[in-house]
Amino acid sequence: MPYDQQYPHESELPTAGVQLNHTAVYASDRYRSAEFLAVILGLKVAAPFGPFLPVDLGNGVTLDYYEKRDEPIQSQHYAFLVRDEQLDGVITRLEALGVTYYADPSHTEPGRINTLFGGRGAYFDDPDGHNMEVMTRPYARP
């Protein structure tokens, strides 16, 4: 049934209170990728849930790592809002693991952080090339 026929009245549209609950993150090795992110962000990997390995972000959202070995992983972008004091720990853990971080999403400013929107942030790749971002202030939207 077409969407406009499914919800013929605007008041019936399912928009109020919508929140992201989880998203699947493709990985060539779900354990390696989930552990990598958990270590960098200071989180824990939860017990497997079917084919998924969840990383709980603490705000009701999980990244559910899903192993995909039969085709290349398409790089995606994931951004994480962290407290200002947490960013220093993230940078320290990236450096300890020898992971290069960048001030920009194009990865042209290695070993630097940015100061966008009055906060601080950095970008880094996960083991499958997903472009991860940590930031201390959300983007100012018009």
Please, could you describe this protein's structure?
The protein has 142 residues and is an alpha/beta fold. It is 20% helix and 24% strand. The protein has three helices and seven strands; from the N terminus they run αβαβββαβββ. It has helices spanning 3-6, 30-41, 84-96; strands at residues 22-27, 52-56, 62-67, 77-81, 101-102, 121-125, 131-135. Strands 4-7-6-5 form a four-stranded mixed β-sheet, with helices on one face. Strands 1-3-2 form a three-stranded mixed β-sheet, with helices on one face. A hairpin with a 5-residue loop joins β6 (121-125) and β7. The longest helix is centred in the middle third of the chain and has 13 residues, at 84-96. The protein is globular. It starts with a helix and ends in a 7-residue tail after the last strand.
Summed up:
The protein is of the alpha/beta class and 142 residues long. It has 3 helices and 7 strands; from the N terminus they run H-E-H-E-E-E-H-E-E-E.
